[in-house]
Specification:
Layout lengths: L1 H23 L3 H4 L10 H18 L10 H4 L2 H4 L25 H20 L9 E2 L7 E2 H25 L9
Antiparallel strand pairs: 1-2
Helix pairs in contact: 1-3, 1-6, 1-7, 3-6, 3-7
Length: 178
């Protein structure tokens, strides 16, 4: 079980490094490019990854208490000109309009860096004994810290893959090296 916990932590931090690498190389124009009428821009996928990292870090898996999300503490929805209700459940983008880009490159990357760094720090303290603890990361009902981390890695991998595919559609190398 200890190896599984370490593997999950490594996956989380690697996903964050890759997401930051493939996104930071994009221009403002590329971040806000819409590949089709029902497909979000690369900036949306990065923001969505950052939102879930923020949600993860606020849950502080395996630790007592819950922290506050950067997104909520800094009222970023309002600062970026969006109502929390327009951003779907957990204000994380599910079900929202696909023709929305949320912020300029610098604000987007700043939020992503901070949310992902906070999530990396939160999971760094995980121990194997924490994986079976109750957690409420997802709104889907009761789960364990381990189940939530598996969900997070799978979900984040999907959006990282979308970022890489959209880079390819923009004529760029899809992946980045870290």
């Amino acid at each position: 079980m200890a190896d599984l916990g370490k593997a999950l932590v490594q996956q989380v931090t690697t996903l964050h490094k890759l997401a930051l690498a493939v996104t930071s190389e994009l221009t403002e124009e590329q971040l806000s490019w819409f590949p089709g009428p029902d497909a979000p821009c690369p900036g949306w996928h990065f923001w969505h990854l950052a939102r879930w990292a923020d949600i993860l870090q606020a849950g502080r898996p395996g630790r007592e208490g819950r922290g506050e999300q950067i997104w909520l503490a800094e009222n970023l929805a309002a600062k970026w000109g969006h109502s929390p209700e327009s951003l779907g459940p957990l204000a994380a983008g599910q079900g929202m309009e696909t023709d929305v880009c949320l912020a300029g490159k610098e604000a987007l990357l700043d939020y992503g860096r901070r949310a992902m760094a906070a999530a990396d720090e939160a999971v760094a303290h995980l121990e194997a004994s924490h994986l079976g603890l109750p957690s409420q990361l997802r709104a889907a009902g009761p789960s364990t810290v381990g189940e939530d981390l598996v969900f997070y890695v799978g979900h984040s991998s999907r959006h990282l893959g979308m970022l890489e595919a959209l880079r390819g559609a923009l004529g760029l190398k899809g992946t980045a090296t870290i």
